Amino acid sequence: MNFSSLNFLFLKWIMIFLVSFGLICEADPRISEAGLVCGTNRTSPSVIIPQFVKLMEVVSQRVPEQGWGSHGVNSTNISIFALANCYEDLPRTDCLLCYAASRTRLPRCLPGKSGRIYLDGCFLRYDIYDFFNETTDSKEDKVNCSSSIGLASGQELTTLTVTAGNLITNLTGTAVANGGYAVAHLNGVYGLAQCWKTVSKKGCRECLDKASREIKGCFPSRDARALIAGCYLRYSTQDFLNEPSQGNSSGTYFSSFHNRNYSFLCN
């Protein structure tokens, strides 16, 4: 069985699980691809692919439990580590769908020794070293300023610059104090900040400080994302957030595992 077949079977299993429990009908997993980074160093497929499969088996077991998962595999030929992290406004159903999408897309980087993919609802990365505490990466960190909803101009641009700037500053500060996560909206601009669960509070602050500085360079874009090694930051004039009250039929959110506070929704 080749690796493409394994990817197909994985996605098929996730879809059967969700449909069988009636969880997919109202899902909005935000699986648009914000960024994909594949390492340039490559190795033999016979060396890395079996270890990658073993690694993802463990991560795939942990994500449904808590909304994120990390694991490392050591072998004589290669060591490999992986981290998956859903953004915490996603209900459980959407998290599973987003993770399934990232899990089937990231192998495009193989047999490269590293890869990371940022979707608008989750993040997945693998590498040959323990990167779990990594906050920034001068080589691979970037912003995605492309916007399907266009650019602001004139008075709208002036308003966007001030409003989004204030939102980003408040949002990042709240996320650091709130365990690495916050959502907010202010005068028609919506935002989300998410640090990975393996990053320390200090690391989260460092990551979001960089994300905050760099994403402001995306103005006049109405929609932008900062894709940093240890975090994700987005603002948009379009409401992309999942409100806690919207949930799935079971009302289960990963926030219940983490005791998150969703009250930071500015008027």
UniProtKB/TrEMBL annotation:
**Which Gene3D superfamilies does the record match to this protein?**
Gnk2 domain, C-X8-C-X2-C motif
Q: Which UniProt keywords apply?
A: Cell junction, Disulfide bond, Host-virus interaction, Repeat, Signal
GO cellular component terms, semicolon-separated: plasma membrane; plasmodesma
Species assigned in the record: Nicotiana tabacum (Common tobacco)
- What does UniProt give as the signal peptide span? 1-27
Query: InterPro entries from the entry?
Result: Cell2Cell_Antifungal (IPR051378), GNK2 (IPR002902), GNK2_sf (IPR038408)
Q: Where does it live in the cell?
A: Cell junction, Plasmodesma; Cell membrane
Gnk2-homologous domain spans which residues? 30-131, 140-240
Organism lineage: Eukaryota, Viridiplantae, Streptophyta, Embryophyta, Tracheophyta
- Is the keyword Repeat in the record? yes
- Family according to the record: Belongs to the cysteine-rich repeat secretory protein family. Plasmodesmata-located proteins (PDLD) subfamily.
Which Pfam families does the record cross-reference, listed alphabetically? Answer: Stress-antifung
Please give, as recorded in its UniProt entry, the membrane topology of this protein: Single-pass type I membrane protein
Q: What is this protein called?
A: Cysteine-rich receptor-like protein kinase 42
